[in-house]
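HUMAN: I'm a chemist; might I ask for a sequence paired with its structure tokens?

ASSISTANT:
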Amino acid sequence: MQYLLKYAKLAAFVAGAFSALGFAPYYYWPVMWLSFGLWFWLLLNVDGYKKSFAVGYWFGFTHFACSLSWIGNALLIEPDKFGWLYPLVLLGSGGFFGLFFAVPAMIVAKISRPWEKWVALAAAFVIGEWVRSFIFTGFPWNLLGYAWAFSDEFIQAAAWGGTYLLSLIAMLFLTVAGIYFKEKNKQTFIRVLLVVLVVPSFLWISGYLRLKNSNVEETDTVVRIVQPSIKQQMKWQKRELENNFRQYLDLSDEAGDKKPNLIVWGETASPFMLDVDDVHMNDVKKIIPKGAYLITGMISYQLKGDFYVPHNSMAVIDDEGRVVDYYHKTHLVPFGEYIPLRKYLPEFIKPVANAIGTFGKGEGPKNIKLSGVPSFSAIICYEAIFPHEILNDDEKPDFVVNLTNDGWYGVSSGPYQHWVATRLRAVEEGVAIVRAANNGISGMINAYGQVKKFLGLNYSGFVDVNLDKPMVEKTLYGKLGNWGIITFCLILCFLTGIKVRGRR
């Protein structure tokens, strides 16, 4: 073990890479547990702020570079234009997000007692995750709590404290082994063993009881979720637009066991602006049953001042072929749907930046109410990763419609991780989510994060599923939002600091 201390930064670098295997679709928890345990042992054995920062940083660098490596696949859709940026994505994601391991490690550097450091590091780390959800518009992908999502029972605690509570519990569980390797005595072994046995057992049992006592009833509202799995390389080719559109129409019009009240397509499913395209709107009208609606993603232009601004939109179309409501995406993807500080970019990057459009920003979570259909909130793609940002706080909807397109990322961990984030939003808010992807994972998730029906990655088809009756009461997390768990973590940090200061 002393040999590892000699090369502490390299050991942290390697351990961080293996730690990424704890997320979907792998869930290699033993590997993640050993990786985090080694990392915490290193932090317990290095001295000073600089060394602690470095050990935290290099662990975080490979943790994020590996777990987010799928982002680079989007650049390979047009490799001649963007392929050269692939290494920069790995370096950029690891280089920036590694700070969210480094800073907590540095903050607790001067805490000498292992158990106090263990608690303080977990609390500081969760506060860092929360900061990651909003700094520079935010990117709370792969919060540590998502690693529990291999089990419906384990994720139920998100209804009380959100995914951040799961992250706190995960950090405590994953790092505790480092204390034993530091002290190596019988008393420490017993304490560590208790944590290893009690923490996941309590989490699972409480989740099991919550699911056992749940009473989920179905409504008569039938939703048809359509996923044609069109390859991203073909999605916007001019010669393929009609064929792509026809695939959506044909799948929507197929006979099923039930007549759908809602037909749901994915993000930018329609390559045509149906609100001004009477020819293609007429085709759409033919496949919508009487009294039903089609929900589709498409690009729409909205007049703002003297200009028409493009939006990544969700359009709701009735059986008469009329757009009866819109939702415009609010949380835009940086470097995908807009370029931050575009005019200040260096000259060599401007040709790439100019190939990326600039979309208008919507007005935030919105409830859509239709005749004969329960009310729903709308979110598009990336918006599903933000805890406590998918609902209108003034009025809880009956369910959520999430349109997305994970075809950008091919066969990778990205679509599975995105699906997990959506499931956690359902548990946190106690609301069912209908998710439709052009390609990715589509399906119905109930208010407990359980998957009712789904279409897997690269699977073309549709599923018909009855909506559940809504959960009347908000969850505890739905009432408190992020402030409940973040305040708790701040208190833990404060009490640990008071104890350390008092002893000095």
